[in-house]
Design brief:
It is built from nine helices and eleven strands. The protein is α/β, with parallel strands linked by helices. It is globular and about 50 Å long.
């Protein structure tokens, strides 16, 4: 049975409103997290929900081709792609392929002895907030070409702002392209990125497969915690019915 992504939304009273492509790209799961009750789950990322490899790779490759068209062949040939661990690690690779096998780096939460840190940023809503950039080539991020930042989804844009702020202080450049499967920022969050780009004095473009907003009830965090508590100790589904569980039951994530 196909996972619809609606079970949690119906029980928390959460609405996903946006482009007509959005329901095919995104659903909702629970988080076992005191900061957020919900988790936006991609149907095409291939991480939380099974998906055909051609769809997973094609989604990222298509975004990369759009970035290449936006930048033009010359600028695309100078671009570096940065993906966010862990959800956008493979997605970033696919975007880099779409650009024409651009140099690619993904963030990590684990320091590596003997490898210098080229930068870092905070993902404030995550269960593990600190990200490090550890390129094998210490000059990878120092070039003047565009930097393409890839994530699976934008909910507030805070992580992107934190990344741009930290990297621009260390490796200033004229152009950034921010890429995601879905853009779920509220209008105020979109305005913040526009204002921040003006503050940097750099051009920041944003590309996604679909855009929308998440409408949350005031008591969503309490409802989410209650729903997790109600179901996390339930007996696991076994046998043939197990394959249908994601469509009718919750998915909990840290």
């Amino acid at each position: 049975m196909v996972w619809t992504g609606t079970w949690v939304a119906e029980r928390l009273g959460v609405e996903l409103i946006g482009d007509e492509e959005l329901p095919a790209l995104l659903g909702l799961a629970l988080r076992r997290n005191p900061k957020r009750a919900h988790l936006l789950v991609s149907s095409v990322l291939g991480k939380h929900v099974p998906q055909h490899p051609s769809v997973v790779y094609g989604s990222g490759l298509g975004l990369g081709l759009r970035v290449r068209e936006l930048l033009g062949a010359e600028e695309a040939g100078r671009a570096v792609v940065l993906g966010y661990a862990e959800t956008a690690t493979a997605l970033g690779h696919a975007v880099a392929d779409g650009l024409g096998s651009a140099p690619y780096l993904h963030s990590t939460r684990r320091p590596v002895p003997g490898v210098a840190t080229a930068g870092g940023f905070e993902e404030s809503h995550s269960h593990a907030t600190s990200h490090l950039l550890l390129p094998e080539d210490p000059e990878l991020l120092a070039g003047p070409g565009p930097l393409v930042l890839v994530d699976d989804e934008f909910s507030t844009g805070n992580t992107v702002l934190n990344t741009l702020r930290g990297l621009h202080e260390r490796y200033p450049r004229d152009r950034y392209v921010v890429v995601a499967l879905v853009d779920m920022r509220a209008p105020a969050d979109r305005d913040r990125l526009t204002a921040f780009a003006a503050e940097l004095g750099a051009r920041v473009d944003l590309l996604s497969l679909a855009a929308g907003t998440v409408v949350l009830p005031d008591d969503v965090l309490e409802k989410g915690q209650e729903l997790v508590a109600r179901h996390e100790h339930a007996a696991p589904v076994t046998g043939p019915a197990a394959s249908a569980a994601p469509a009718s039951g919750p998915a909990a994530s840290a």
